[in-house]
Design brief:
Layout: H1 2-5, H2 8-25, H3 28-48, H4 51-70, H5 86-104, H6 107-116, H7 122-140, H8 144-155, H9 161-180, H10 187-196, H11 200-226, H12 244-272, H13 276-294, H14 298-314, H15 317-334, H16 338-348, H17 353-369, H18 374-385, H19 394-407, H20 416-425, H21 429-453
Length: about 450
């Protein structure tokens, strides 16, 4: 097991890439073989997964196996139950290359310099830090959190730990959530687009409006909270010399790249009738390599990208355990009458759509409190809610599915983002949850409000 763990970067792409290829070939026999290979891969990944994901994966495996037997499906059908979530795993496998091209272009360092420039008070620092984190998360996703948190820890060395803990856990996690609300490279967004069948471009203006509105509210909220605290400069800290014109050009390049990326994804998806997740997966690699070449940073991108991709892929055990076990559970559940029972409360509320939206919002929140990853929740909800798309506007359901899921990134005590922040800042994760709960409720409520207005 330990020997094979070092070569997961060869094992995972082989299986997930073959599945993507088969999406074009449409071979049932090849899909069966891929599903069969997923079983030893699940066992191998389980050995290297964290305790939380082992528990979560174990629950889905046991429940999925039980449902499989209850449905009376033939044993030969088992491999076909393991492949439904492989497009998501293929998507996660190529995602580090986008992170690497941003780092190769040194956008992360230059934009992070914005936080190192002294400001008069912590209210202004909050706004600047939030904006910086927001920009970086759009391309770097989870990798942006430790980067910005380390810079802020250096900026706030002379501040009481209680204050710095509160500041960092608010600004980084909230900006992280808001940046991903409309990102095509966010799993929750991609899953919702494919589940509802609604075009990403239909969701985009509403999600972007919600993101910007909540960002402004958060800035006003915390500028007032931290504004009275004077920022005393540290004489020993190096202050970078920022050229405003050059910084604006760096940000403009990032926004232009994101616009081109979105245009390419939508064009490819519409032109060939591809699922949104598959479109993003196919575009990321050629886009990242082309961007690196145009920036004349191809050599550093190639070295950095390979090393980053290798490390990230070798560390994908948590997601592999979650997604493959989730596939077994959801596919087996669909073959039983239990799905209709779960759908019952949602169908009963079909005449009062606002209740459905509120139920979705608080289901995410409740599940995150007991350690269930929002990806697992959204996968189950997607199956449960599918009959409602003819009764309730799927755009409304999709908006709250995305915003409710991402709101948990600020409060999920056992989630990756909160745990990472707790470790980086050496604070209690439950304090982070309590501190960000008002924002999580606000974020979910804004999603519910937009969904209600679109009914």
């Amino acid at each position: 097991m330990r020997f094979l763990q070092r070569y997961l970067y060869m094992i995972y792409p082989s299986i997930f890439g073959l599945y993507v290829l088969n999406m074009f070939l449409g071979s049932t026999r090849l899909e069966w073989l891929i599903g069969l290979a997923a079983i030893p891969v699940l066992i191998l990944s389980y050995a290297g997964a964290s305790r939380l994901f082992r528990i979560l994966g174990g629950v889905f495996i046991v429940a999925g196996a039980g449902l499989f037997l209850y449905a009376g499906l033939p044993a030969g059908q088992l491999p076909m139950q393991m492949t439904a979530t492989m497009p998501l795993l293929a998507f996660l496998t190529v995602l580090p290359w986008m992170n690497s091209v941003v780092r190769a272009g040194r956008f992360d360092r230059r934009i992070n310099d914005l936080m190192k420039v002294n400001v008069a008070d912590f209210g202004k620092l909050y706004v600047r830090s939030s904006f910086t984190t927001y920009l970086l998360v759009m391309f770097m996703n989870l990798s942006a959190l430790p980067l910005t948190q380390e810079v802020l820890k250096g900026n706030m060395k002379n501040v009481k730990k209680r204050v710095s803990d509160s500041f960092i856990s608010r600004v980084t996690l909230r900006a992280f959530t808001l940046a991903l609300l409309w990102s095509p490279m966010e799993v929750m967004v991609a899953m919702t687009v494919d589940a509802t069948g609604v075009s990403y471009l239909t969701f985009l203006p509403w999600l972007f409006l919600a993101s910007v509105t909540l960002l402004m509210i958060d800035w006003l909220w915390n500028k007032k909270t931290f504004g009275p605290l004077e920022n005393v400069p540290d004489e020993n800290r190096r202050i970078p010399n920022i050229q405003p014109g050059k910084m604006v050009w760096q940000i403009a390049q990032l926004l232009l790249a994101l616009t081109v990326f979105l245009g390419t994804v939508v064009t490819l998806g519409n032109g060939f009738g591809l699922d949104f997740i598959l479109s993003v997966t196919l575009v990321i690699l050629p886009f990242a390599f082309t961007w690196a070449f145009l920036m004349r940073r191809f050599r550093s991108f190639r070295v950095l990208g390979w090393n980053t991709w290798k490390v990230r892929t070798n560390g994908m055990q948590n997601f592999v355990v979650l997604f493959i076990s989730l596939s077994l559970f959801s596919e087996s559940l669909n073959a039983t009458p239990f799905m209709e029972m779960i759908q019952g409360p949602f169908l009963a509320a079909a005449d009062t759509p606002i209740l459905i939206l509120l139920l979705i919002q608080f289901t995410y929140l409740a599940m995150s409190m007991i350690g269930v990853h929002p990806v697992a929740t959204i996968a189950v909800l997607a199956e449960v809610l599918s009959p409602l798309y003819d009764l309730v506007n799927p755009v409304s359901i999709g908006i709250i599915m995305i915003m409710g899921a991402l709101a948990t990134a600020t409060v999920g005590t056992y989630g990756v983002t909160v745990t990472m922040t707790a470790m980086n800042t050496e604070q209690n994760p439950y304090r982070i949850t309590l501190r960000n709960m008002p924002f999580a409720l606000l974020c979910g409520s804004v999603g519910t409000l937009i969904g209600w207005l679109l009914l």
